[in-house]
Design brief:
Helix content: 40-55%
Largest sheet: 7 strands, mixed
Radius of gyration: 21 Å
Structural class: alpha/beta
CATH superfamily of the largest domain: Type I PLP-dependent aspartate aminotransferase-like (Major domain)
Shape: globular
CATH class of the largest domain: Alpha Beta
Distance between the termini: 26 Å
CATH architecture of the largest domain: 3-Layer(aba) Sandwich
Strand content: 5-15%
């Protein structure tokens, strides 16, 4: 899996992109004045009010600097050390966070359930939970369900799917967490408002992502049941994510939420991903591995074409099996980048016969 790419377009991740000018300007403005530390500032207060308005509910909001901290600390708020966190086997929380959910929860067990399109199905979860504690106290107690929206396969849960999963989880006394690193991308794909896509479906806590969609380093943990956040302030401090100059995280979120920048960025990324998918599937021997419902494209491509594109210096990852690549579009991925990639792919397909 190559990690260093030449100067051609880089579709390896939305983390490769820069930052929205509006967010950079907001940071510069915040740097021109003094403010009280640890979140006792006007930017953090404004962000809290904006989230309450956005989600049409009383919420408890905690800005943090990384998605790993958001997920791990949120799951720890739902899960005791002797509990179990149910997750998809491809989820970021399970695969890519170096044991952070287990660490911050004090040793909770991660239990996997899911299907190839990145989702967990309610019936599968119910079947697993039906026999979760055959030996009572000798087995971990189901405590939390974490769902990625959009998923690691680039698919999006419908509100019906979310509601069914939440009903199963709540029926077993579990909390429901949503990893929303690409929440905006899923939201604009489905044309939903934030409340309909979260707490109205039974989501208890959301890791609200901004870094992948135009921020530099800014996420927020949002509790839709504020009583679950009673000790979260201390957990965030102990975890090293109560920043002394919190206004520099909050200023990013403030700009991100202003004038629907977060949604505009997501629409731009989704549009580019759709263009990539359409162009690739026009080639002989290429097929989509998952539906394109956000800003990620998973495609099965002939090896000769993959090798040639890598040789050209285009950035992408080989994922999930021989001949499968992942392309991720960012908010600022240009049509020129897409056209160059597709032109090269067409050229190599012709050469391969």
């Amino acid at each position: 899996m190559p990690t260093n790419f030449a100067s051609n377009a880089n579709f390896a991740s939305d983390n490769v992109s820069g930052a929205s000018p509006e967010i950079v300007a907001a940071l510069a403005a915040a740097a021109e004045t003094s403010a009280m530390p640890y979140g006792d500032d006007e930017w953090t207060a404004r962000v809290e009010a904006k989230f309450a308005e956005l989600f049409e509910a009383e919420v408890a909001v905690f800005p943090v600097a990384t998605g790993t901290a958001a997920n791990a600390l949120a799951l720890a708020a739902l899960t005791p050390p002797h509990g179990a966190i149910y997750c998809h086997p491809g989820s970021h929380a399970y695969v890519d966070e170096c044991g952070a959910p287990e660490f911050y929860s004090g040793g909770a067990k991660m239990v996997t359930v899911g299907n190839p399109d990145g989702k967990i199905v309610a019936d599968d979860l119910a079947a697993l939970l039906a026999d979760a504690r055959p030996h009572g106290v000798h087995n971990v107690r189901p405590a939390a369900l974490t769902l990625s929206q959009a998923t690691e396969a680039g698919t999006a849960y419908s509100t019906d799917e979310l509601a069914a999963l939440a009903e199963v989880a709540h029926g077993h006394g579990m909390g429901v967490h949503m990893d929303g690193a690409r929440f905006a991308n899923a939201l604009v794909h489905q044309g939903l408002n934030p409340a309909a896509a979260t707490w109205r479906c039974g989501v208890d806590v959301l890791s609200f992502g901004a870094t992948k969609n135009g921020a530099l380093a800014a996420e927020a943990v949002i509790f839709f049941r504020p009583e679950l956040a009673r000790e979260f302030g201390e957990a965030r401090k102990r975890g090293g994510h109560l920043l002394s100059k919190m206004r520099f995280v909050s200023a990013q979120l403030d700009a991100y939420l202003s004038d629907d920048l977060w949604l505009a960025n997501a629409r731009a990324a989704n549009r580019v991903a759709a263009r990539l998918a359409t162009g690739l599937t026009a080639l002989a021997g290429v097929r989509l591995v998952h539906p394109v419902e956000a800003n990620e494209v998973f495609a099965a491509v002939p090896e000769a074409i993959i090798d040639a594109l890598e040789g050209d210096g285009f950035g992408f990852y080989r994922m999930g099996g021989e001949g499968v690549i992942r392309l991720v579009a960012s908010f600022n991925t240009s049509d020129t980048d897409v056209d160059a990639f597709l032109a090269a792919a067409n050229r190599h397909a012709d050469a391969a016969g």
